[in-house]
Each structure stands twice: as structure tokens, then as C-alpha cells.
Amino acid sequence: RMGESRNSHAFFVSANHKVKIAETGSVLSRLAYMRSLSSFIGKFRTFLLYGIIGCGSSGLDFLLYTLFVNVLHWHYLLSNCISVLAGISTSFMLNRTYNFKVKDKAKTRFAIFLTVGLCGMVLSNLILYYCIDIMQMNKIVSKVLSIVLVVFFQFLLNKYITFKPTHNPNE
Q1: Which residues contact 93 (CB under 8 A, 6 or more apart)?
Q2: Fewer Cβ neighbours under 10 Å: the N or C end of the chain?
Q3: For 7, which DSSP code?
Q4: pLDDT at 5
């Protein structure tokens, strides 16, 4: 902004992750700030986008689970299985297209993603069973807890197995 004092400063992260201070009045320092911020975000882009997509897919999972349990009065484990499968399908399509951008071996990758998702569903069902039947916790609170615990497990498996780039895109 024009008229800023020469003593105002901006903090930014440099390429070597050290915080640096630059005068905000300098066009060059603003450009350096934008570049370093872009570089910082770029390094975590996949994780951030996975998180955004995961929030949407988990939101769908949670919404369906809540509908099935509270409105339709289905058993919580049946509700969880159906809602998780809807979340898995949505997450795969969005991650494949917008995040990891891997188009080859669609059927194989979906089978792996589904397997990872089903492992997550088993873990989620175990958490729900423990929280609801053993600990007598609320079904909705238990579902939120299960989502939080399963997300990181599935991110690592999907990043390093499902969407691992192939050396030959024609495979």
C-alpha cells in the first residue's frame, strides 16, 4: 500500500525454511514473500488438497451415517459400512482427478484404494464398537473420533501405495 512507513516489516519463510524479515515498502521484498509463500504451500500441496478432499468425503460419510443412525434408525455398523463406501468412492474420484493426477491403471488403483478404504472401514468399525458398546459413548461423537483416527492411516497408505507414480505411464 502506498504511504506505508519504511519501518513496517513482513515475515516470510525462505527456501531453507528460515523466517526472514523484509521491509514491506519494497516491491522486491513483496515478490520474495510471495515466492517463498508459494514454495512453502507447494511443498504441502498434496497433503493440503488431500485434506480438503478428505474433509468433503468425510463430511459425506458423516452426513450419511447421521441420517442412517438418527433418522432411519439403522444399526450403527451397517450405517458406517454404507457411509464409508460412499466416502471412499467420492474420495477416489476427486483425488485421482484433482490431487494426485494419476490417470493410468484406473481399475487397479481403485481396487487398491478400495482395499485401503475397507481397511479403514474395519478400523472405524472397531473404534465404533469399542466406543459405543464398551465405553457407552454417543454414536455421533464416536463416529467423529473414528474419522479423525482413520484419516492419517489412509493418507499414508494412499500416498505411498495407491497413487504411487509408475515409471511407465502405459502400464
Answers
A1: none
A2: N
A3: T
A4: 44
